What we know:
Elements: E1 10-14, E2 18-23, E3 29-35, E4 40-41, H1 62-68, E5 74-77, E6 85-87, E7 90-92, E8 104-108, E9 112-118, E10 124-133, E11 136-145, E12 151-152, E13 156-162, E14 171-181, E15 195-197, E16 200-202, E17 208-210, E18 219-237, E19 242-248, E20 255-262, E21 275-282, E22 289-291, E23 294-296, E24 301-302, E25 307-318
Amino acid sequence: MSDGLDRAGMVLLRSAALEVHIWAGKGADICSLIDRRSGIDLLWHTPWTVGEPAGIPWTGDSQTDWLARYPGGWQQLVPNAGPARVVGGVRQGYHGEAAIRPWRVLDVGADRVVLAVELFTAPVRLTRSVRLDGDTLAVEDELVNLSDEALDVRWVQHPGFGAPFVDEHCVIESGATTFVSDAEAPGSLLAADRASDWPFAVGSDGSAVDLRRVPSGRRSVFGALTDFESAWFSITSPTTGLVMRMDWDADVFPHAWFWQELHASAGFPWFRRAYVVAVEPANVLPGEGAVGKRVRGAAPRLDPTERRRSELTVTVRAIGQPASGDLLP
């Protein structure tokens, strides 16, 4: 490895508390988020082996192709998120272009990296700056409209968390006040197209389901958190003794997609092998249509030559331990 970058385009960053692997050669994915004190990687990894994406055959179906190249971890979905759509006369594939393209490394050091890419399916340049500071991972993203036309841009952060950090003893908390189940694919447990007061969702039998608890049995869930009093979520893992908290700007990401796939879904690509929990800051609700006054799938406009920035932090610490920068008693 030279200057933090290996031949496969993987960047390694370290602080005293954290180790992060970033795949510049594929989407600037954050592939691992490792607590160095315990050696535990908090992020989920797919049960299939991705290897070098260039060696995976293309099928012509954007969803199949995206999932075949999906290693788990944390992606950035731009300019599309969810099913393929025709936007501005071009078909934007499933979950967008940014997560399957190689990114350029502009600057790299022991605890920081700056990467960038220009997209083809939308005239957008993305720049990502990742920095470690003790037990905090800071991610700054910028979108720039390179044209003199307004663009509809869907933008979703896509981190997934898995075992051993996630198990049936975990608790999910958030600053959201509302949960909205997906209208088309709410999963195996929930009624479709329903809004409820977080942390509860409406079950398919009309019962109240507490989404703070990660169950031991099989289930799948898909929807979104919204109406944030403060934009954050945390996962507390008594088994590992760790707690992870993510904070972001609700003006940029007013929603967070909420996804659980817990050994529930048969067939490609899951085959009931996946165990993953995801909370994904987003500028749009998933799907199409409306729940009451909530409009789904309507992408915010990026004005001509406009720049839009996101600042997001992830803190990993032992349960009961103050985060870096907290005042000690």
